């Protein structure tokens, strides 16, 4: 109306600063604030005309108020990045997969993905795995991208996994192994025996023959003539300086005696190994002769004498 001033537009005052109606901002602590203004249904309200008043009055617009609430973080991706420093919400501009941050558009393979390939797009991780044929494989192949389980073996009513080794019931001498669904059996290897056939023996529960221990000998055979000596017998084979003994294993051990002559004229006794030097000498015509020493006779030069100590 003429003669009246136009009221100023309503504002919000927050911490000493004006805020325009509808303005939104973030306060520390991840609080979202907005300036809201309550406006009447009509900018001006005309009151009933009074008889003494010629002009109608206008009601000024109401002031604004600030409303704050915690920031809401709607996550629109499956693998968002953690909230950055100074931010309030996780980010979908990258991906966090198995604890590893991936950049937008990064292509990678998981550590245990078995040839799986993944890509990071807008905070979402999409993975593609190779198509593998169904069923089991004949043998284990760790280097192959398609993991498969080797076939099991069914043998005599029992099931064995791949690589299992087992023995037949009641036959410990046969060893079998399961390989890719098939059973391979083989006999236990036996050592080569060096004993004659009649000395070989197969004991209870044994898979291979063994040699019997030869019977203990009771005597020693010296030669092909059948000369036999019992165990422990000592004898001389013809030389008195050589002695032999029949040992417990049937073998003969002989040892020769070395004689050391300590006298110039030793006496050799038949059947005795070493000469005898223990006897004294002879005295003849004032001269001393050693035992077994020969010398000419003084009475008859054609006679030869010998000193014999008896």
From TrEMBL:
<keyword id="KW-0325">Glycoprotein</keyword>
<dbReference type="InterPro" id="IPR052080">
    <property type="entry name" value="vWF_C/EGF_Fibrillin"/>
</dbReference>
<dbReference type="GO" id="GO:0005576">
    <property type="term" value="C:extracellular region"/>
</dbReference>
<feature type="domain" description="VWFC">
    <location>
        <begin position="151"/>
        <end position="212"/>
    </location>
</feature>
<dbReference type="GO" id="GO:0098586">
    <property type="term" value="P:cellular response to virus"/>
</dbReference>
<keyword id="KW-0732">Signal</keyword>
<dbReference type="InterPro" id="IPR001007">
    <property type="entry name" value="VWF_dom"/>
</dbReference>
<dbReference type="GO" id="GO:0005737">
    <property type="term" value="C:cytoplasm"/>
</dbReference>
<feature type="domain" description="VWFC">
    <location>
        <begin position="93"/>
        <end position="154"/>
    </location>
</feature>
<feature type="domain" description="VWFC">
    <location>
        <begin position="10"/>
        <end position="93"/>
    </location>
</feature>
<dbReference type="Pfam" id="PF23334">
    <property type="entry name" value="VWC2L_2nd"/>
</dbReference>
<feature type="domain" description="VWFC">
    <location>
        <begin position="218"/>
        <end position="278"/>
    </location>
</feature>
<dbReference type="Pfam" id="PF00093">
    <property type="entry name" value="VWC"/>
</dbReference>
<keyword id="KW-0964">Secreted</keyword>
<protein>
    <submittedName>
        <fullName>VWCE protein</fullName>
    </submittedName>
</protein>
